[in-house]
Design brief:
By secondary structure, the protein is α/β, with parallel strands linked by helices. The chain has a domain at 1-62: Alpha-Beta Plaits (2-Layer Sandwich), CATH 3.30.70. The protein has 12 helices and 11 strands. The strands form 2 sheets. A 7-stranded mixed β-sheet has the order 8-7-6-5-9-10-11, with helices on both faces. A hairpin with a 2-residue loop joins strand 7 (182-191) and strand 8 (194-200). It is elongated.
Length: 281
């Protein structure tokens, strides 16, 4: 068994302490802010220590190899990017508190996602479509480590899927900007340059996300267990469940409980530290 301990605040003192607590046989650097503990004999004390020190701790029962994966699938809002786009759009029409409350409940799994999305979009009726660009330009920011993860994915030959319960206005711009391979999201209906408060077509919910992961894997001749899936909300759980590596990124408790990996302090590139740095072993 191996443990990977990582976080932006990781120091040599932390590395020494987790090595002592784990009674491991070897420590290996897994990047500037990560350490891998081999043959760890004790886990719970390390987990408790990392929680107190704001570090992420991941247990690996077997080494992860880049060649074992073909796809990286990501949620968009609060995963690839730091914001919930619909909440920021709502801020432009003065209804952010109402919309954000519904968003939060939906992400915790307390509300049916399609109906929750329709309720939120209805509150945006009448907003000029041009204001969406304002959200993209002024408020949308990539999560820490996003570009490093995507660069490593390209180098490893992994394909990238951005699958979102958000909107195509944003996913398509991110696709062009970041060189993503495939995207899936909802389409906001507009009329005369304004939002109608409706979504066109079927809602991209948890089932649609999982179905898309299966589709892209099948189309490229692999299986869903050859995918890495990252998300933060309850509507990501179904696609995470079929993956080979599920990563809860600064996620809601229900997601952290079910994902194989939880990253609460590390950036998205913390995924890379989970892979065995020792070629050929």
């Amino acid at each position: 068994m191996e443990l990977v301990v990582q976080g932006p605040g990781l120091t040599s003192h932390h590395a020494q302490e987790v090595a002592r607590l784990s009674a491991c046989t070897r420590t290996v650097s897994a990047g500037r802010t990560a350490v891998r503990l081999s043959d760890a004999q004790s886990v719970d004390p390390v987990i408790a220590y990392c929680r107190d020190q704001k570090l992420d701790c991941t247990r690996l029962d077997a080494p992860l190899k880049p060649a074992d994966f073909k796809w990286v699938a990501m949620d968009m809002d609060s995963t690839l990017i730091t914001i919930e786009c619909i909440d920021e759009i709502a801020d432009l029409v003065g209804v952010k508190p109402q919309v954000a409350a519904i968003t939060e409940a939906a992400m915790r799994g307390e509300l049916d996602f399609p109906s929750a999305l329709r309720r939120r979009v209805a509150l945006l009726q009448g907003l000029e479509e041009s204001r969406l660009q304002q959200v993209y330009d002024e408020r949308l920011r990539l999560s820490p480590g996003a570009e490093s993860l995507l660069a490593a994915a390209k180098a490893a030959g992994w394909k990238t899927l951005l699958v979102s319960g958000g909107f195509t206005f944003f996913t398509e711009r991110l696709r062009a900007r970041l060189g993503l391979d495939v995207t899936l999201a909802n389409v906001l209906e507009t009329r005369d340059g304004r939002l109608t408060g409706q979504v066109l077509g079927d809602i991209v919910d948890a089932d649609a996300k999982a179905r898309k992961v299966r589709e892209v894997c099948e189309a490229s001749g692999c299986v869903p267990t050859q995918s890495i899936v990252l998300g933060d909300g309850a509507n990501d759980l179904k696609m995470m469940a079929i993956s080979g590596l599920s990563v809860a990124f600064r996620a809601k408790p229900v997601v952290q409980q079910q994902a194989r990996v939880a990253l609460n302090h590390t950036g998205l590139d913390g995924v890379l530290s989970l892979f065995d740095p020792r070629p050929g072993e």
